[in-house]
Amino acid sequence: MPVLLLVMSAVVLFSSRNNSTTHSQIHNAAITAHNYRYYMLKGPGGFVLARAAKGPYGEPSETPQPLAPLGNGFGQYETDSVGSIQLSPDGQYLAIDGVREGGEQVWIYDTQRMTVSLQPPAVMGNFLHWLPGGHSFLYRPMFPMGPNAPMDGGGWNPGLWIVDAATGAHKNIDIGAPSASLIDAAASPDGSRIVYSTTPGLGMGSDTFLMRSDGSNRVHLFSTDGGAQSVVGLFAWSPDGKRIAYERISDSSTPFLPSGLWVMDSQGGGQQRLADADGGHGYAPVWSPDSHKIAFVVRTNVSDQRADVQEEALQSAIGVVDVDSGHSRLVGLPAQTGVQMSINPLWMSDSSSITFTAMNPANKVVGGTPRYWSADVLQDQSSPQPVPLTPAISHVVAEG
Predict the structure, then answer these.
(1) Would you state the pLDDT for residue 13?
(2) pLDDT at 28
(3) What is the pLDDT of residues 108-143, one digit of tens each?
(4) Cβ distance 123 to 143 under 8 Å?
(5) CB atoms < 10 A from the CB of 76, how many?
(6) DSSP alpha helices (H): ranges in the chain?
(7) Which residues of 18-44 are buried (b: 16+ CB within 10 A; e: fewer)?
(8) Residues 6+ apart with CB under 8 A from 209
């Protein structure tokens, strides 16, 4: 069945689900959720969540099947978009960070009961990262929405929130700055610490901190002055918890200038620049399971000034860098895939190969057409030859 017809039938499928579940069914469904790739598809009535079973390389093995519409007409306008889709560590919830006129909100999809809700309710803000182990996440609250907005001490003075995806309940952590100053925050693999960054405003650089997950023992790690590549964010802890990768993005009103990929130890020391990276598009670095390599998105048309300001002008590949040696290579170049962009790298469990998607920029009316590729990154080549895994998938707005 064509994808658009599947999308149009999603409301019927969603409304006919039987929501009565047992504890055993919920547990089994949570395990099963990790066996799927999730998508936001562009349909005639707005965005529709879909999923497809994973193949052996993490690629979809079938056409994405609709699960639920987001509702309220979200996705009907060209200005509507989805920033990220991320499954919780326990597989029970899917966080969907959506952007519409007026700000960002987070939709939570319950993978067992197959329901969608805004969490936290009555707040504009954005999803940052899941906390390890369960289904709580780090969240940047921005604006209250009406009289039902959750307040702290009777007023609106939030910092960093930890939100329970099941209930929307939150805990506020004082970060020493208003939430509007928060750039990014990410928890260590054991959940004991959080690294985060703040900025006082455009052109004023940023500050990076490390604290315990309850907000205690806050330590200022370093500052960066305003200017080229001075806004720190896109944090990613290594699986062994010993190092933190991050990007330094240009502190400029020009949105898509190149950035630098950096790494430091878990206490903020040993800061080292590893490579040039794409900047401004929000593609975070991804550690290999063995904690020795990082895959990241590299802009390949740095000299084209149109790509500094036009998202659709981006040309990119996947960079892979060995953190210990500093040796890096590129894969998924436009000349190899035949399309402009390679994004969303995913490591295989043995850290020897990656799967990624390659596509031209998405059409705002009908979505994009990503295709999955695989590459052996242990080959002794400066640019390993990728292998296509799937045909192109239609109407995709975001994937996770």
Answers:
(1) 30
(2) 57
(3) 999 999 999 999 999 999 999 999 999 999 999 999
(4) yes
(5) 15
(6) 3-8, 10-15, 23-33, 334-337
(7) eeeeeeeeeeebbeebeebbbbbbbbe
(8) 175, 176, 195, 196, 197, 198, 218, 219, 220, 221
User: Is the predicted pLDDT of residue 4 greater than 90, yes or no?
Assistant: no
Distance CA 16, CA 19 (A): 9
Q: Are strands 341-347 and 328-331 parallel, antiparallel or unpaired?
A: unpaired
From residue 323, give the alpha-carbon distance in Å to each of 114, 185, 247, 266, 272. 41, 22, 14, 14, 9
> 265: closest CA among 249, 243, 247?
243
- Token pair belonging to 268: 């903020």
Which pTM was predicted? 0.91
Is the peptide bond preceding residue 386 cis, with omega within 30 degrees of 0?
Answer: no
Position 278, amino acid: D
Tokens of 215: 């907000």
Which is nearest to 145 in space by CA: 105, 99, 173?
Answer: 105
